[in-house]
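1st attempt posting a full record on here, be nice pls
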Amino acid sequence: MRSLALASMVAALTVVSGASLAQTVAPAAPPGPMARARYSLPWNLRPAIAPNLVRMDVAVAFQSAATSTATLLTGGGRPFAALPDLGLYGRLGVVTHAPDQADGRQALVNPLLFALWTPQLAPGWRLPVFLGVTVPVGAGSDSSPAQRATFASGVYTRQAMDNALFAADYLTVMGGAGVMWMGHGLTAQAEFTVLQLTRVWGETVNADASRTNFTTGAHVGYQLVPWLTVSVEAHYQRWLSDPAAVVAAAPAGNPLRRDQFTVGGGLRGNFAVGSALLRPGVAFFAPTGGFMNATDYRIVQFDLAVPL
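the predicted structure (as tokens):
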């Protein structure tokens, strides 16, 4: 009897231990879509976590003499299961420009192809690295002055943070990096980008064979409740080279095109739909100086991001 009881106890312990081990090694269930809402997605900065993503955002710029819009569609994701922090993306778009007392026009932007590598350095910390290139086919090298002005209007409509998309006749290679921390409902991130523009055609209308640009920005967001995030964001752009337009403006007492600085913020919703997360948002931005301030730019941005 004692042997039977001992054998029963050993068998029971084996079953319990096996169940505990199974629970230990069993893979955790994948997080639901609302887990992605803990990250405050920036407005004009790059994501610091490489997502599977479809996104459309529309910036509407009101200024003293015109109204412009820039509509961008971004899509892509992580193509390699073995590299979950690497994302490959493409961006297309259209810009419209309506000067006061004149007919409006529209133009396609330069397509952008880019990669994001966002490794986790430590719990809550990531180091996003960016590399991209544009294809200079947006405005066309032989387009009219009005059409080229429409194309260029997207620069300030996007707060001078996406210059390469609106650089007619220039192929642009760009790279940058940043840092992000996320925890306790708070997201804080910053980034910088260097853009090297090389003229591929349009010598008769563009005096610069090459241009070098620099952008940087910071974003802070807080998840007030699971379905609502509030954020603030700042952007700064500066020409590192001396483009003809900047040099020509300075002697006339107008050094306002060298750099731009804008600040603003907005609200973003977080709504789970099946396995997807709908993240609609609206934000407002204004300049603090430079050409944008001199011409009374005020920008409203509407955004719908769908991380999958």
